[in-house]
Structures are given as C-alpha cells and as structure tokens.
Amino acid sequence: MVAMLLQLARQACLFFGELWSTNTYEVALVLSGVGLLALYLYRQPRTNVPMISGGYPLLGHLHLFSNTVRYFAEAHAKYGDIFRFRLCGYEYYVVNGKLIFEGFRRFKDLSFYEALPRSALVTSFFGEQDTSDTSHIHLLRTTLPKKFDVVMDNIQRILEAKTHETLAVAADGVIGVKVIDQPYLWSVQVVGSAIAQFLFGPELGTDPEMFMLMLRLPENASTLFNYSRIFPLWVMDFWVQNFTAWPEHRRTIRKHVIPEIERRLAAQALPEADRPAPPEDLLQWMIEVQPRDHADWMDRCARRMLAMSFASVHTTSFMFHRILAHLSGHPELRAKLRAEQRTVVEHSGPLTSPAALDAMVLLDACIQEASRTANLAAAFQRVTTVDTVFANGQIIPKGSTVYLSPVAINCSAELYGEDWDTFRPERFLEGAAGMGDEKKTKAYTKSTAIRQNLLSFGSGRHVCPGRFLAVSEIKRMLCILLRRYDFETASGTPFVFNKVLLQDEVVDQPLRFIPLDDPVTGE
Ligand code: HEM
C-alpha cells in the first residue's frame, strides 16, 4: 500500500515537475514527504476512547432512553472513566468516575457555554445569549450570600402562606384531609412562587400572568432536551419556535419586566425624601449591575430573567416533588423526621432559624439522598475547544460533545454499597459518623457541600450558585409540611421513578394530606 502510494507520488512529481520545469527530484521529495505525513496523520487515531458496544445500526444506542443511570453505571464498570456512544448520527463522549474532576477543572478545554445551545437549547428557548457577560450569575455568588437571611425570611413567609392557602380546607373552620391531584404542579405553585418573588419582587412575582409563566416554563422541556440529542439543532429550533409556548414565554417576560424596570428607575429618580428603598430581589440587583451601553439593555435583562427562572424554578420544584414522592412511601421516615424536629426545637430554637435548619441532619440527608438517586442532571454537557488528552492518556477530539456524568460517583456500589439504588437517607448519617474529621463530618450533613462522593450540584467553575437557596427552601417547605401534616399516595401504591435518557421522570399521582392531631410547634 505504502509502496503503491509512493509510486503514485513519484509519477505525479515527474509529471508536474516536467510541467513546471522545476527540479523533478526536489518536488518528488516534498510531495513524498507530504504524502507520508498525510498517511501518518490518517493512521493516527483521532480518539482512543472505546465505544460502548451493542448499538443499533444507524440509530445507535436507543436503549439509553430506558434507564441511563443503570446503563452508564454498567458502561463505567466495563469501559472505565471515558467511553463514547453514538445516537442517531451524533457521537457523545462520557467522562465519569474519578476523571470527572479533571473534566470540571479543565473548564477552558471543556466549554460550558459552547455546549449550551444543545445541552439546554438556550438559543432556541431564550434567544441569542451574550455569554461574555455573566454578571447576572455572578450576583448569585456575591450578592445573594450577603442578603441571604432577608431573602429566606421572605421565602419562608410565602411558603407558609401558600401551604395554608392550598392545603387548609377551612370548611366550617375545620381543617380536613386534602387531596392534591397533581403534586408536581402544586410544588411549582408553592416552591416556584416563592422563587418567583426572589427573582421579581413582591408585585411582579405574584402577577397571575407571571405565575402562569412559572408554571408552564418546564413544560415539555425535558422531553425537548432528549430530542435535541437525536435531531439536528435547526429542527429543534423550528419545533420550539412553532410548536411550543416558548415564543409566548419570551413575549410575556418582556411585557412585564421592561415596564417594571422603567417603574423602578422612575422611583429611584425621585427626590431622596420620596424615594422608596429598592427591593431585595434578583431583578433589582441585575438592574444595578447591567451595563447600559446597549439600547436593548432592558430586553437583555428580561431574557436573562427568563433564563434564571428556568434554572431555578423547575429544578427546585422537581427536587421537592421527588422528595415528597419518596417520603410518601416511608411512614417510618416521616415519623423520624418529626421526632428530629421536636428535638431540634428543644435544643436549637425556633424551627425556621438557621441554627435549627442546620441541626436537622436527617432532613438534609433526605435531600442528599433524593438528589443522589435522582441524578436530576445525569450529565453536565460540555464541548471540547481543543483536542483534549486526559491524565489516563485518552484523547477526546476538538469539537466533541462531552458528558461529565456524576452517575458513576452518585451511584457507585463502592461508595454507597450494594443498596446504592435504594432511597435510604440514613446512609449519610452513618457516613458522617465514620468520618472522624470534624470538617468532613460537617460536609456529610450538608447537601450544599461540594465533595468527591456527591455531585448533584456539579463542581468546579460552574457549580450551581443557587444551591444554598434551593436547599434552604426545600428544607423549610418540608418542615412546614411535616410538622402539620402527614401525607401518603391517595392510591396506596408507591410512586414510580423512571430513568429516561439523561433525564429522570417521576410518574405523578395524587397525594393525600392529613392534618396531624399533635402538630410540632416551634414557630
Ligand atoms: C434542587 C435544585 C437545583 C439543582 C439540582 C441544580 C443543579 C445545577 C447543576 C448540576 C448545575 C451545574 C451544571 C453544569 O456544570 O453543567 C447548575 C448550574 C446553575 N444553577 Fe442550579 N440547580 C438547582 C437550583 C438552582 C437555583 C434555585 C438557581 C438560582 C437561584 C440556580 C441557578 C443556576 C445557575 C445560574 C447555574 C449556572 C452556573 C454557571 O454558569 O456558572 N440553580 N445547577
């Protein structure tokens, strides 16, 4: 083969050399060199990452749709920390196991922003994004921690009011059993409303049209993410623009946010004596930092607020709903959680105080366990900006789609034992007990702590900046519920948890809430 190519090159050189009257041997030498180089590059494998075997011809690994978590766990056991699979013409690389931490650290080589158009369909959902300005995300890392107590006090009030409004059936002053037909919608209604007020303030956050927007934001989104792995992006974009509510969501947010910004700017222009105190919400913080050198800066704010709503509302509601679904099947756990509340009230003060919330370690363990088993994000998507060679020598070519998958860590039998796929929050308390070191023990009792054995909020530069708010809100909401109500599925049969391609779905069913005869007190 090589001899034949050299012969061909020689003939070509002789021919062109004659033609251009150059020194035939020099041209022959250069062309042979180019030929050999091409041959070398051609022979050089673009990647040495193994492909998961057993895919369907042309269609690829469609069975990933059924149970990704188990599939990834098995693939990790067989192929190690990096493998790849093909789905409908697209090739995906999965980095998992311990190498995932190298993936998080190499954020310049594995770009979060380049992945966004496909991973979260952001361009289709929210319009063109200026990813060079991330000041709005920065606010969650800088301003939110400073104002956390004020924000959480507001959230607590809303959660209390909404729970009372939706669960207390006050016929003849008697609070009776209440069945919630669609607990997921209810969780968006309660948990989502509270976040909406953190995002938009007390007025806009309670506007009925904005509320409908919050409620409908997650509509079909996870299914669309799944399809985005099968179809070209332009097909997805066409679909989103013409057959979903997203263009309407964009119109709604503009319609409300732009006048609200104008109203706030007008209020701040008033003489000092008449000027109201600026509200403590994300929109206000964003108005204050948003550069105004573009005519459409208010429009940009509106689009960013839509993106922030999406990042915060459905993730938190989803996680809360999931915990409800688990707890509804575990009466003994609900009883233990109530006992924990009683002890905490005795020793750490009112149930809503930061110290009391911190002390509820079993409640926190439930959140950790739900997030561990849910793998809400079964893969954090990235795109390689260069040919990326990992520490183990495996090469992922430039421009590839990479999934940093927490599954092999969150669902590791080595880390979590043979019952890794069972919902058993106590494992985190046992883990904490075995730590010895105070710092590590503390980490085990905090679902917000980023550590090597739990990756529900990601890690590295793009680790979730909203996790403190989300966890505190979920804890508060569970506290409110557990101290006053018991709950179970109306059918008596437990929830079904489905794992579908890189997403996770819980088949919803009605929940019955029964007021307790002896509620936990400790306001
Ligand atoms: C239980 C609820 C939540 C879960 C499970 C969750 C999960 C995550 C994960 C896994 C990431 C990292 C993605 C990656 O590395 O590719 C992330 C990023 C992010 N999350 Fe959350 N999140 C939650 C709630 C929230 C809330 C309440 C907010 C806002 C208040 C929020 C705002 C964000 C933002 C802005 C990013 C992108 C960070 C960046 O680009 O650097 N999240 N979230």
From TrEMBL:
GO terms for cellular component: membrane. Heme binds at C464. GO terms for molecular function: heme binding; iron ion binding; monooxygenase activity; oxidoreductase activity, acting on paired donors, with incorporation or reduction of molecular oxygen. It is found in: Membrane. The keyword Repeat does not apply. CDD domains: CYP503A1-like. Its cofactor is heme. Keywords: Heme, Iron, Membrane, Metal-binding, Monooxygenase, Oxidoreductase, Transmembrane, Transmembrane helix. Its main location: membrane. InterPro entries: Cyt_P450, Cyt_P450_CS, Cyt_P450_E_grp-IV, Cyt_P450_sf. Belongs to the cytochrome P450 family. PANTHER family: CYTOCHROME P450, P450, PUTATIVE (EUROFUNG)-RELATED. This is Cytochrome P450. It comes from Tieghemiomyces parasiticus.
